[in-house]
Prior knowledge:
Helices cover 15% and strands 32% of the residues. The longest helix is centred in the N-terminal third of the chain and has 19 residues, at 3-21. It has helices at 3-21, 146-153, 244-249, 266-274, and strands at 40-51, 54-57, 71-78, 81-84, 92-95, 99-107, 127-138, 167-171, 205-210, 215-225, 251-263. Residues 9-26 have low confidence and may be disordered. The protein has four helices and eleven strands, in the order αβββββββαβββαβα.
Amino acid sequence: xxxxxxxxxxxxxALALLASCEPEEPTNEVNNKLHGDPVAATLTLEAGTVTDxxxxxxxxxxxxxxxxxxxxxTFRLQEHGWMPISPRDTAFFVLKDQAYRLSIRYTDARxxxxxxxxxRNGQDAIHQHFFRLRAFKPLLGxxxxxxxxxxxxSSALATDALIPQLLEYHYADTNPWDGQQDxxxxxxTGENPKTGxxxxxxxxxxxxxxxxxxxxxxxxxxxxxxxxSKYNKSVCSPYYQPSARQRIxxxxxxxxxxxxxxxxxxxxxxxxxxxx
Length: 276
């Protein structure tokens, strides 16, 4: 066989072997997403109690008191971002240290519920809601704390570390995703209800508690769509602090600033509403 032909064959084989050894590029989940585009989000807030990390809705909310009744706000994607569609439902009323369950449902342009699309087919591995606080304003003669002032002036990664002083949040996602939490919490997949250790935090369901009082503020809810995975060495970011890499590299499917009126007690709610 001619020497040039032999060398050509050897080069072809070598190239084929090198190509077979090259690692595959990780799938860019943003460009290959398996969910519809959300255009509306309905947020439902329910007051309740927490025992051993498990949330229970209060069976008999007091008539006429918004902060202990079931509240709902629907946001819609508009020209300038996600905004409430009804001017009457412009804020959630909450009480200091009161536990609330927050549920989120998404619909597309055809008004079809697509909430499950963010969880099925492995989408739960690349989606996570984050919950942060901003835009504090004092009410009823109060003044802002140093932490609140700092959160007002900066959105830096380090500043977010102050949020747990003012907001407690726990992921209470379940399996199945649209099922009810069982009596022992064994079907909770978001985090361990006893230890708080994150397992598979998505945030379609969770419970929260505000420790700030007599404030108007914004609860920033952001749904992250990771390019490859929301896990970094099997660990997820906490609810209040997406990592620097996630902030820069990952996509954000939804970004909503939810108005909150946080009050000391029901008497403060009455007093506040009298000023409106």
